[in-house]
Amino acid sequence: MEARLRFADVRVGVRFTDRPVAEALLPALAHRLDAGPGPVDATITVRCHDREKLAWWERAAPLRPPLLRALGGDRRRVVHAAAVGDERGCVLLVGARLAGKTTVATAALRGGFGFVADDYLLLQAGSPFEAVALYGTVCVRARDDVTRLRRDVVKDVLYVEALMPGALRDSLPVRAVVMPRIAGGGTRWRPVRAAAALRAWAPTTAFLMPTDRGAAVPLLSELVQAVPCFALDVGDSSVEIAGAVDELLDRALSLP
After folding, report:
1. In this structure, are residues 43 and 16 in contact, taking their beta carbons and an 8 Å threshold?
2. Which terminus of the chain has a smaller tally of CB atoms within 10 A, N or C?
3. pTM for the full predicted model
4. Exposure string (b/e) for 21-51, b if CB count within 10 Å is 16 or more?
5. What residue ranges do the domains of the chain occupy?
6. pLDDT in tens, 111-148
7. To the nearest 5 percent, what fractions of the chain are helix, strand and coil?
């Protein structure tokens, strides 16, 4: 089975040796399927023959290592970040795992914001920078206390279009970089220096993209100096969290 994917101006062909594996992986990439004619820029061959052996993260973010190579360039890189926004643009949510990126993204999604990414996106340099969606999934942890305490917990993979039809965005201009932190209580935000945002973001992107050998870091450094950066203390109310995203977009656009 074969499929064609398109990310911004890059076309990628994918060949599956097993149809059930293709049917398990392609839903996360459904918004990227491309039926247009013409050559592809890269080809990926998937040789897995047993869909039952696919881990949850492979269904949530399929083909990530080969896409990292296929999509990488001098002015674009796959990076570790979530992104939500609207017609004004988006905020990038950065930091280590469990920092609260998915919490903010899902609260914003429920609050009516558009969704670009939960964990990985294609960052394309420009004026402004653009966050390009890779996957149409969001991954949430189980709610029971025993499961939440395990580090190897299996997450539920949810498809954004099924969860909130029309919310998935192809891409959005980046207006701010935000470092969330689960704090409880009320949700609060404050400006931070670009260096603080880079310290929170660069290590996770470099660690999760080892074959990239840190090539994304100069792009991250350029972005945090080009847009305002904020720290976000994530509280208990999803309505307040979505409200904070709204305030951050307004604040970012009001700055010179």
Report:
1. no
2. C
3. 0.92
4. bbebbbbbbebbeeeeeeebeeebebebeeb
5. 1-71, 75-254
6. 999 999 999 999 999 999 999 999 999 998 755 433 44
7. 35, 30, 30
